[in-house]
C-alpha cells in the first residue's frame, strides 16, 4: 500500500469518525426525548464543518499534511472535550426530564384539588348565596339610611358654615374698610410730615448758611480783635514799663528828698540839743556865781 492509498483510507476513516460523532449526538438527543438546544445544534454544525475541513485539508500536499496531522491531534482533543460536554448535557437533559415529570405530577394534583374546591364552593353557594344576598341588601339599606342621615347632617353643617363664612366676610369687609381709612389717614399724616420735614430741612439749610456767614464774619472780627489785642498788649507792656520806670524815678526822687529832709531834721535836732546843753551849762554857771 503506497502513501496515497494510506491517505485516502485516513480521509475515509476521519470522515466516518466525525460523521459518527454527529450521529451519536443526534441519537442521544432523540433517545432521551430532549429538545435540541442552540448549543447542541451549534456543536453538531461545528463538527460537520470540521469534518468537511479535515477532508479538504487531508487531500492537500504532504508538507501541509504534516501540519494537518498536528491539527488533527488538536482536533481529537477538542472532540474528546466536546463529547465530555455532550455527556454532561445528556445528564442535564435526563435531570430536566425527571424534574418536568415531578412538576407535571404536582400540577395534576393541584388541578384535582382545585376542582374539588370548586365543586364544594358550588354546592355551598346554592344555599348560602341567597342568604348572603338578602343580608347584603339589608346592609345596603342600612348604609343608605345612615348615608341619608349623614348627608342631612353634613348639609346642616354646610349651611351653618356658609352663614359663618358670610358673617366673617362681612366682618372682613368692614375691617378692611376701616384699615383702608386708617391707611389713608396715616398716608396723609405721613405726607404732611414729609412736607413739614422738607420745610424744616430747607429752613435749617437757610439758617445754617446764615449762621455759617455770621460765623465767618465773627471769625474775621475775632481775628481783627486778636490782632488789635496783640498790639494793645504790646502797647500796654510798653506803657507799663514806662510807668514803672516813671514811678521808680519819682520814688527815687522822693526817697532822696526824704533822706535829705530827714538829715536836715536830725542836724537841726542835734543843734537844738547842743544849744540846749550849752544854755543849761551857762545857766548853771550863772547860778553858782
UniProtKB/TrEMBL annotation:
Keywords: Cell projection, Cilium, Coiled coil, Cytoplasm, Cytoskeleton, Flagellum. InterPro entries: DRC10. It comes from the Eukaryota. It is found in: Cytoplasm, Cytoskeleton, Flagellum axoneme. Residues 208-242 form a coiled coil. Belongs to the DRC10 family. PANTHER family: DYNEIN REGULATORY COMPLEX PROTEIN 10 (PTHR31598:SF1), IQ DOMAIN-CONTAINING PROTEIN D (PTHR31598). Component of the nexin-dynein regulatory complex (N-DRC), a key regulator of ciliary/flagellar motility which maintains the alignment and integrity of the distal axoneme and regulates microtubule sliding in motile axonemes. This is Dynein regulatory complex protein 10. It comes from Dinoponera quadriceps (South American ant). The gene is LOC106749425.
Amino acid at each position: 500500500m503506497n502513501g496515497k492509498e494510506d491517505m485516502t483510507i485516513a480521509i475515509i476513516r476521519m470522515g466516518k469518525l466525525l460523521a459518527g460523532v454527529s450521529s451519536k449526538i443526534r441519537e442521544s438527543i432523540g433517545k432521551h426525548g430532549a429538545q435540541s438546544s442552540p448549543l447542541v445544534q451549534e456543536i453538531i454544525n461545528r463538527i460537520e464543518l470540521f469534518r468537511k475541513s479535515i477532508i479538504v485539508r487531508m487531500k492537500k500536499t504532504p508538507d501541509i499534511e504534516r501540519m494537518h496531522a498536528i491539527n488533527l491531534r488538536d482536533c481529537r482533543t477538542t472532540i474528546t472535550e466536546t463529547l465530555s460536554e455532550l455527556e454532561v448535557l445528556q445528564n442535564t437533559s435526563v435531570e430536566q426530564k425527571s424534574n418536568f415529570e415531578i412538576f407535571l405530577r404536582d400540577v395534576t394534583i393541584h388541578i384535582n384539588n382545585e376542582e374539588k374546591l370548586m365543586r364544594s364552593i358550588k354546592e355551598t353557594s346554592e344555599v348560602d348565596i341567597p342568604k348572603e344576598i338578602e343580608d347584603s341588601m339589608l346592609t345596603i339599606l342600612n348604609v343608605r339610611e345612615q348615608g341619608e342621615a349623614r348627608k342631612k347632617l353634613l348639609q346642616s353643617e354646610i349651611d351653618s358654615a356658609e352663614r359663618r363664612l358670610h358673617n366673617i366676610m362681612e366682618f372682613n369687609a368692614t375691617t378692611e374698610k376701616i384699615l383702608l381709612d386708617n391707611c389713608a389717614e396715616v398716608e396723609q399724616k405721613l405726607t404732611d410730615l414729609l412736607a413739614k420735614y422738607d420745610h424744616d430741612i430747607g429752613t435749617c439749610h437757610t439758617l445754617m448758611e446764615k449762621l455759617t456767614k455770621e460765623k465767618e464774619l465773627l471769625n474775621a472780627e475775632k481775628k481783627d480783635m486778636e490782632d488789635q489785642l496783640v498790639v494793645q498788649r504790646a502797647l500796654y507792656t510798653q506803657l507799663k514799663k514806662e510807668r514803672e520806670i516813671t514811678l521808680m524815678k519819682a520814688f527815687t526822687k522822693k526817697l532822696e528828698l526824704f533822706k535829705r529832709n530827714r538829715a536836715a531834721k536830725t542836724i537841726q535836732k542835734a543843734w537844738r540839743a547842743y544849744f540846749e546843753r550849752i544854755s543849761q551849762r551857762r545857766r548853771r554857771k550863772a547860778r553858782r556865781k
